[in-house]
Amino acid sequence: MIKTKLKGITFSVIFIFSQISGIYAANFGNEPDNRKWAISGKTGSAILIQEFHDFGKFLNNEFTHQPGLAIDLGIHRSLNNRWEPGVIFSLYRLSGESNLPDFSANGNHSSFNDLYDWPVEYVTVSTALSATVKYHLRKLPANSTKTIRLDPFVELGAGVIYFFTQLGYTNPPPAVPEAIIFGKGTGKKPRSEPGNVMQATAGLGTEIDLPQNISLILSVNADIVNYECLDAVHNYAADGERIAARTIVGKIMAGIIVPFGSRDRRPGSTPWSPGDLT
Known about the structure:
Elements: H1 2-28, E1 37-53, E2 57-58, E3 64-66, E4 68-77, E5 83-98, E6 120-136, E7 149-169, E8 180-184, E9 197-210, E10 214-225, E11 246-259
Antiparallel strand pairs: 1-2, 1-4, 1-11, 3-5, 4-5, 5-6, 6-7, 7-8, 7-9, 9-10, 10-11
């Protein structure tokens, strides 16, 4: 079910993004200014790192989390030679497994009252729409470059995330009539709270500007999701009270940036010059 939804979402995003790109290219393709508009595409790996609550109290990981596919598609506009706001659509797949489902939710959540001591796994697919702003540590030059140039940056953003998740037995024992233990937004499980969840993102990376009027991009990001059920299991304290935790998802990605129109960059620039930091 999740794999089918993932394929459908991916196809829809690619189609919509291609249409938007065509519209922007037609309207802004002749801009002479320094990379006013650009589109970006990145792919890489995402993994659930940690859950926490109350300003840095980290919870024990109840799963061995596995890396999964991550995709970012964005539209950006440079305001000057430092600042570059944008809008990014993100999609990633998370998963994890546990050989012994000894969760804090056991006995505290209705779906976790009678679990078999049998290996389980979760799968989560997430989509998010975020507004971001990128700050370039080097001033973006005004003329075209003749060599490879590095432009490191930091990035902050916030947006809304929508996810569906599912937990089930890896290989159900014969006595289990239903392999799925718990889910949100999948199968016959209707979506309860939450609907859309807020998230913040922070990252750093570098653009690798090429003379061919494109840039490669490498980045490392941490998304902080204002919810604790991305691993399909809620968290509870020893007294049975549910913990309102948050989730950290890490992403390592690489991709390409394509500006609309010509990119005016300084001729003969070096990949790094201390004077460019001022």
